[in-house]
Amino acid sequence: DGFTRCAPVDVTLVRDGTHEPLEIRLERGGTILGRVQRPDGTPAAGATVRQRITMESLRSLGAEENGIPRAATAGSDGNFRFGELGAGLVQLVASLDGFATSTIVEAQVKPGEETCDVVLTLRVGGRITGEVYAKDGTPAAGAQVIAQLTADPLAQRFATSDREGLFAFEHMAPGTYQVLHIPGMGGASSDPEDATAMFGDMKMASATVEDGAEVHVVLGAPPKDPVEISGRVLAGEAGVPSVVLSFIPDAIDTISGLKLATTDAGGRYSLRLDGPGRYTVSIQKPGASGQQQSITLSLDVPSGASFGHDFHLPLGSIAGRVTDGEGRPAAHVRVSLFESGPVRNGTLMGEHYSEIETGEDGRYELVWLKPREYAVAVGGVALGGLLGGTSTSGRQVREGVVVQAERRTDGVDFQLRKPGRITGVVRQADGTPAPEAAIFARDAQGRPLERLSMIATDSSGRFTYEGLEPGDYTVMARKDTLTTGESARLRVEEGRTAEVELALHGGTILLVSLVGEDGQALDCTVSVLDEAGRQVNGTLALTEIMAAFSNGTLNSKEQRVGPLTPGKYRVTVVADDGRKTTKPVTLSGQAERKLNIRL
Prior knowledge:
50 strands; Immunoglobulin-like; mainly beta; globular; 5-stranded mixed beta sheet
């Protein structure tokens, strides 16, 4: 009593050698004294006050009863006392039946001291109503529906439809939600094929909630102009089983139009699309623990009751072996693949993305690759640091790995080194901490260590970037339309920690498109280089991907880049017929800049 729960302690077990003593330090907890009030300012008796759950805090939830953090309860006068809190900036949120949660309030906690006069105000909230339909077009009774706040993947609510397929979410906090129904969710089957089939029937819509307002969504309504599409996924002449196909409609409400299918043992698939038009199709070979190998293609679906199309996967591949510092096979090490160079419009990070692990013999193989150059990265923290953790190996990136048509590029081997780390703080322009800012790192050659950033700042604006190979790095942060730009070079040494401070400022979203002589938009690839020659497009944060799916900004005719700092950039676009043009562009800090290039 009187002490706060200690921070998680990472322990490395080695086969040989002497283990250092495990030291766990307890610190005196701080206390927050405050008041919870209703929207009209009256006391909110019985309201619950909790620390906001973030991805960073998930690592330590296992220490709490039932995985739920401790809470404080407001008395009859609305006052609460929340003790034994860890030092630092904490985010508090209050809840009470009949109201939406309060806005998030930050408070500074000091060991052994009281922080007073913290006020949490509940909101009226909005209402999401909806109707859900089964595959045959009839109302789906007893369907479980999830509403997930786009800006916070951990903020979820659940509802069940009635006999007429109607459902409602009451007292929802303002924001944009993904509303979805997954038939069969909650079943006991652990078969991956059952799981992918279940997600293939998933129905989704997007809803924007305002305080005191109501919004209605429809899940799975029979489309007006449906197209039944079917075919096979082939590698050479052989069908590819158990792969997931995602059909993403172009430049509309991506969430509601997203359709999924899974191939059978012969590589066959079939599903019903809501209508004709351009689709971005992702074909994914799923693996354990978030692993995947995927290729993204474009498909124009014509009008008509049915359409047949076979997908022929490219047969190029990359293979190699990863060893530790002593030359022994390194098992279960992260291996990532992404494209070197330009990024195709309509894709998030290019046509190819893979995240796998080495086998027990340290070997790996990356498949379904078109002839071109790729970057292969190994080592680093599991899942890119999504759930924190440490790594026993530093991240290495090798660019310019060439794959020829239907050929295997072998011998792309790596020997791991012990890592260091970078810690830092990101601040707003006024000097206050910037929570939930995405962190990106580049090595000395300017190569991004991750195309998909899973690392973000905590409520105090702090972050830790683990699993860095000794060497020089730059880091940057961005959040919404704000960016810090690249930091000065930081030297990382084995087992040591480098420190950095970053400040967010207004950035510019650059929108790049290409048109032909007739003014029609053309398919193309895009490369945007800064003054140092570093490519600045093709990197995304997890929150940015969720936003792209919710607001329909994933467009095959336009690429969204940034936010970028003020400065000079060179934009190169290449049409599918090989025609190429390069344009300079100067950004001065405006919120958005459209660059429509004509061939």
